[in-house]
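Deliverable D5.2: sample structural annotation.
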Amino acid sequence: MGFIGFALKGNYKRHYNNLKKVSQKTGKSTVLMFIDTAVSALVFKSGLQDYLNYEFYNKSFSERKTYATIGYQNKFYELAANVKYAPFFSNKVNFHKNFSEFTKREFVSYDDGFSKVKDFISNHKEFVRKPISGLGGQDVVKLASSDVKDMKTFYEKLKEENCLLEELVVQDAEWSKLNPNSINTLRIVTKCIGGKSEILFAVARIGAGKTIADNFHQGGVGVKINTAKGILEGEAIDKEGNVSKETSVTHVKVNGYKIPYWKEIKKMVNKAAKVNDNVNIIGWDVAISKDGPLIIEGNRGPGMDLVQVLYKRGVKPDLEKVKKEIIAYQRGR
């Protein structure tokens, strides 16, 4: 079908169109960048989104090889985040039970029965409905008890859609100033090897609209965290690469903004990382409530796209060091 025909198929068509936009900004040839995308995929195991997220079109091969691409991450997590432990984290009911010390909020699922679901709704004027299994903040909905007109129908739909209900997090007043409409979470990546944990990377995610989810892939923005000082550092960046010095909803300057309860947050995630150290790398989504920090969920094998975009560098050397530590520990047992 020829090169252009190949470029216009499926995800490649979307990628080709995205490269056209890059071409308009940079003056680089769309066709040559498309070829370069294929070369990067072969050499660095990068995906289409990797090429755009990390601006590989502006980077040398020596720079590109420092990035943890999607292909590299998949292989790395075979070692650092064994898939057999996936249900321990990804199933939200399991997660609540396994990490109840850190989640700090009530929940109920359809498996608890109709009467418990009914009691939960009666006791909470507002709550959150989310899929028991799901990623990226998708299908997370804030509801009011008054929205439930027919309890039986609501329960059956909860069962049909495999969802649970959670107590609504009331966000810390200072942290809410970044965007009061969303729960603005921190993504903190920890490593834990042999019962010893530490923070590798940390970023903040701030909602950009009126939905409760702040997720970077749902229209939110990200900001790097200075882990030593407990402050936001640099500028806010969205998935399209747009940069801003302030939040879009409340126009608060992000650089230097202090994170409430930072010492408590660090202590919490390092302790949580030790609950199941068969998984060496976990990305914790942390909310800051009016009563202090809590964990929304833990991601086994977290994606490194947001981290690398906000850190403005590749983290493959960091992960290679972790890999050597894991192998050395396993051999020494």
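Annotation notes: The mean pLDDT is 93. The radius of gyration is 21 Å.
The annotation will be released with the project's public dataset once the embargo ends.
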